[in-house]
Design goal:
single chain; about 130 residues; alpha+beta; Thiol Ester Dehydrase, Chain A; six-stranded antiparallel β-sheet; globular; PaaI family thioesterase; HotDog_dom_sf
């Protein structure tokens, strides 16, 4: 994918109101394949003051999509077909979670991706995302 188109798509994803309200940002400026980061805050925690588990699939989905961009055939896009997530440990209020992903397999019609959330060296969650290539 040409760099200008990729940058425009990345910015569109990050500018979605929900993503903006969560404070999602690229972990490394200009490198969507490096993943996304988000500070855990009062707005993103459950009553136990840890990252709300419902946000894990969202973070994995966004990260997997951004990771897939450079692997997509020219002129194609990807939409989520299915996803799974497992929360392994708590991410506490004030910590920064970093979500990274890898492309496990890219076929003609589907992409299979894996991702994980970490706080420093601690794995917080893992998951898989399947995207249809359209």
């Amino acid at each position: 994918m040409n760099p200008e188109r990729r940058a425009a798509i990345v910015q569109t994803v990050l500018d979605l109101p929900l993503h903006r309200s969560l404070g999602l940002r690229l972990a490394v400026d200009g490198d969507p394949a490096a993943g996304v980061e988000m500070a855990v805050s009062e707005a993103t925690t459950n009553p136990s003051a840890v990252l709300h588990g419902g946000l894990v699939p969202l973070l994995l989905d966004v990260t997997c999509f951004l990771r897939l961009l450079d692997s997509l055939p020219e002129g194609s896009h990807a939409v989520t077909v299915s996803s799974t997530a497992s929360v392994i440990a708590a991410a506490r209020d004030g910590e920064v979670v970093r979500c990274t992903a890898r492309v496990d397999r890219l076929g003609r019609t589907h992409a299979f991706l894996s991702g994980e959330l970490r706080v420093g060296d601690k794995v917080v969650a893992t998951g898989q995302v399947v995207k249809a290539v359209v």
